[in-house]
Structures are given as structure tokens and as C-alpha cells.
Design a protein that fits this description.
Blueprint lengths: L1 H29 L1 H21 L11 H20 L9 H29 L7 H28 L12 H35 L4 H19 L13 H9 L10
Helix pairs in contact: 1-2, 1-3, 2-3, 3-4, 3-8, 4-5, 4-6, 5-6, 6-7, 7-8
Length: 258
């Protein structure tokens, strides 16, 4: 059991890549039922890995520290296993709904995790940036829900199957609106990650080198998010830093001088 826990504890660091890549092939090659079975297996593996990392300790769960770790990593896990069903395609509306529903749920859990992380970091003298991060991610989440509603409307609109020259004006008008909303969602999400990474570094609750890597990734995401460049416009990519913030968050007694 000790060796199994060691393997699970190591697996969680590579879970985003190890889970989402094979599940993408399962969803798109074998269909939704096989994908749901793979999702169930993936969540069980992630739950065991989280247990191996001590994220289900009863004494930690009622605390902001314990909730932040559990929700940020758990929300990321849901995004990995259900986000692999994307991107939405008109030829399989059911799979598109499933994909977007999973992302809505996973991102909502991450939003709750950020609320707990804000409460934890604001106990420290230099944790004010956490409030900025939480507000920014809240904006990103609201925009994402709006985008999902637009996606579902597009998938069901008969006019989407027409050549562009024959599409009605109202539909053509929504495309630039969509682009601006997408940029707002991406920039807000990466700005939130940058704010939380900065707050973690300043308070010493995130180690300096991992924190700096997450901060650099987030700032690059802000820049590329404006132009919606690959791969930063993918919803699951916006969840990478929140996931690792949950993994690297330390107890107050473990902090290092900044």
C-alpha cells in the first residue's frame, strides 16, 4: 500500500496530461458511453491520488486551507475528464452538451476553491491580491456560462449549417461579439491565476520557483488570450495554474521567508 500511495502521489502531478489525452481518443473514437466509463475510471484514480496527497484529512476539510486544496484539484480533475469530450461539434450535439456541462461544473468548483484560497491567503499581511484574483475569475466564469448558452444555441440553429453568404444577419453579428467575450473570458481567467500566484509568493504560501513558473505561465496566457492563440484559448488550459496552486499550497507553518 505504501508503494501504491507513492505512485498515486506522483501521478497527480502529471494527471492533466495523462488523463485528458487518452480520454480524448476514447470520447471521439469509441463514443460517449465509453467516454463516460473512462471518466468514471479517471475520477476514481484522481480521488485515490488526492487521498494519497492527504486531501481528505478530516481535520483539514473544515478549514480554508483544506477546502482550497480539495476544490482546486478536484475541480481541475472534473475539467480534465469531461473537457476531453470537446471541442463541441455540430454533428454530435449530445457530446457537446456533456462537454460544456462538465466544464461548467468543474470551473464552478474551481471558483469555490479560489474563494477558499482567498480566505486563506488574506490571513497573511500581503495576501490582498487574492481578492483581485477571485473577482477576476468570477467574471471569467460568468462569461463562460454565457458562452456555453451561445454554443448550445448555435448548435441547434438550422442557419449554422448554411454557407456563410446565406446566414442571417443576426447570426453574423454574433460572431464578433463571441470573439470579444472569448477574449474577456481568457484574459480574466489568466489574470486571476497571476493574481493568486503573486499572492502565494508574497505570503510565502507557495514556494518561489513553482510560484514564479505559474505567474509566468499566467502572464503569457493573458497576452495570448487577447488574440485567442493556441493552446491558451482551450478552457482546460486556463485550469492548469489553479490546479497546481492547489497542489503546491503550504500550511502557514511551512512558509519560507520572502
Amino acid at each position: 500500500m505504501f508503494m501504491l500511495r507513492r505512485i498515486a502521489s506522483a501521478f497527480i502531478w502529471f494527471a492533466p496530461l495523462l488523463i485528458i489525452t487518452p480520454l480524448w481518443f476514447v470520447y471521439h473514437k469509441l463514443g460517449l458511453p465509453a467516454g463516460v466509463a473512462g471518466t468514471t475510471a479517471g475520477l476514481i484514480v484522481m480521488a485515490f491520488a488526492m487521498w494519497a496527497r492527504g486531501m481528505f484529512k478530516w481535520e483539514d476539510l473544515p478549514t480554508a486551507y483544506g477546502l482550497a486544496r480539495l476544490l482546486l484539484v478536484g475541480g481541475g480533475a472534473i475539467v480534465w475528464v469531461m473537457g476531453a469530450a470537446g471541442p463541441p461539434r455540430r454533428r454530435d450535439v449530445t457530446l457537446a452538451f456533456y462537454n460544456n456541462f462538465g466544464l461548467i461544473v468543474g470551473l464552478f468548483i474551481i471558483l469555490l476553491g479560489f474563494a477558499a484560497l482567498k480566505a486563506e491567503l488574506q490571513k497573511e499581511k500581503r495576501g490582498a491580491l487574492a481578492a483581485v484574483g477571485h473577482a477576476s475569475f468570477s467574471i471569467s466564469y460568468v462569461v463562460w456560462v454565457l458562452e456555453c448558452c451561445m454554443i448550445w444555441a448555435f448548435l441547434r440553429a438550422p442557419a449554422m449549417g448554411l454557407p456563410k453568404a446565406q446566414q442571417p444577419d443576426w447570426l453574423l453579428f454574433t460572431f464578433p461579439v463571441w470573439d470579444h467575450l472569448d477574449s474577456l473570458r481568457l484574459v480574466s481567467a489568466y489574470l486571476a491565476s497571476a493574481a493568486f500566484a503573486s499572492a502565494g509568493i508574497l505570503t510565502g504560501r507557495i514556494s518561489r520557483w513553482p510560484g514564479r513558473l505559474m505567474l509566468a505561465f499566467s502572464l503569457i496566457g493573458v497576452m495570448f488570450g487577447i488574440v485567442q492563440a493556441m493552446p491558451f484559448f482551450i478552457p482546460a488550459v486556463t485550469c492548469i495554474v489553479p490546479y497546481f496552486l492547489g497542489l503546491t499550497l503550504r500550511r502557514p507553518a511551512e512558509t519560507e521567508p520572502v
